[in-house]
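Lab notebook, bench 4. Still working through the backlog of constructs that have no structural model yet. Next entry is a single chain of 267 residues. Request: give me the structure tokens for it.
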Amino acid sequence: IKGKTRLVIEFTEKKNIKPLTWSLVGLDQNRWKIKLFSPSNSFKKIGEGFTKRNTKTAKRNHKSKNTYRTNYDYLKLPQIKKNKFFVVIDPGHGGPDPGAIGIGGLRETDVVLDVSKNVQKLLSEKGAQVRLTRSNEVDMDLPPRVSFANRANADIFVSIHANASRGKRRDINGLETFYYRGWRGRLLARRIQKQILKVSPGSPDRGVKQGRFYVIKNTKMPAVLVEIGFLTGRLDARRLEKSIHRKRIAYAIAKGILEYLSKVGWN
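Model written out:
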């Protein structure tokens, strides 16, 4: 990174501030947030650093607030031929099966359904035909998910899940993507894994692995199962509980899918 940025925070006198109670949180690869656990009314107002507001820039920024995609310009979603590809997105669990239960009661079924709907929206906007195996909280077994994708003759199948560690250890975090067989499945997994790591700085890369999960073993098309973080992990759970991070994950998954389709989907 070229250049340096210096941030100065001044407090009023006789305030007992403990730096160890502050935290620096990564929002994405380009943005950070400082959380200050400080006494109320402890900031000192100074005149340095104030600038005249640029009304033209303000108007442009106001327009950009209409869509969250402007926050991820660096991802640059690839182009694909309209209506050429059929994608099935599978939000794991559902209904009476909530999946993993994380910190603060965070439920896997809720997180992955939200992410899946955002993936569907992004892919549809790029011209892909996209269907979800479930769009609400319903009880759905594994065979119907596979049958749905196979009957539709989908080009790819992506199952989205969130992890939990044994003993609910908060120090275990990370992202991983599984495929069952074939270079196409492996390539799709690699594309998605690469992108979700970009929007989850600091979360460990648990890699691309072969797995024998029912939904990727029995589908006829290239299929992957994505674990978008540990709901029991201190770092991952704090992110996944926030809607903005779930949108980042959805954007990353969508980019991985589009990269795959734009490069090898025509073969």
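Notes after review: Residues 44-71 have pLDDT under 50 and may be disordered. Residues 41 and 96 are 47 Å apart (CA to CA). Flag for follow-up if needed.
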